[in-house]
């Protein structure tokens, strides 16, 4: 058995997985022949320290990249499966602060809540765009929390989209843990402090990009992200990932500058995408540039 097969054999499917798969199947059926589909993964996975989880190792990712990119894929006429960490940043809602919404409401005639005219101009465009996408059924939201939830969803989504290849792409922006505690080593109940300081040994997660590219979705256009904090390592690591897994594009980004620039690395070349001062002043997001570029490359991929 391959390492990744062992992982799935040892970590049971999360609750609701069959329903999630049914939703993905129905979504793909609805859009096949009408819209290309993008699977966007977003936010960070958790690694539980206990099976009845009280404590877990988390990841910094807020999900901003995935949520913003989803809106731009929708703008490019894609249907989007948005697989995101529960309670992370989401498309459309990210423009509306919950406190702002509470401030924006007032009680109208008959005690019915209304949006005050002064606030309406900010909410209306977001609401209109969301309603349009909703009426077209072009956005499917699915959530994960733990690493295992994420990997089960990723595998099923990829297998589902493979049937639509080449008109489907994977855009893997989630920050996925490289380390975990295997099922046979994890504590069943809350770890007690009476036993003294805690030493935990995390094992390496099998590299799932390998079966993703070679087994689950061999004809899909696959874009992965690579995050580093050391500038000197970024291109080297992105290129190594591409050579190892043989997918289509790696988007390298540095923690410190990820909102302003990314490097697109393919087998043949690497190119920098950076917001200009003018674009920053206009509040243009780097995700707009990334998604335009990815869609253009995906269109070429579909042609050949
Ligand atoms: O979610 P966010 O907007 O805060 O950050 C996005 C990101 C840095 C997690 C993403 O661009 C990324 O690089 N994801 C892959 C991380 C990795 O190397 O596993």
From TrEMBL:
It comes from the Eukaryota. SUPFAM superfamilies: CoaB-like. Signal peptide: none annotated. GO terms for biological process: coenzyme A biosynthetic process. Pfam families: DFP. GO terms for molecular function: catalytic activity. Residues 159-274 form the DNA/pantothenate metabolism flavoprotein C-terminal domain. Belongs to the PPC synthetase family. This is DNA/pantothenate metabolism flavoprotein C-terminal domain-containing protein.
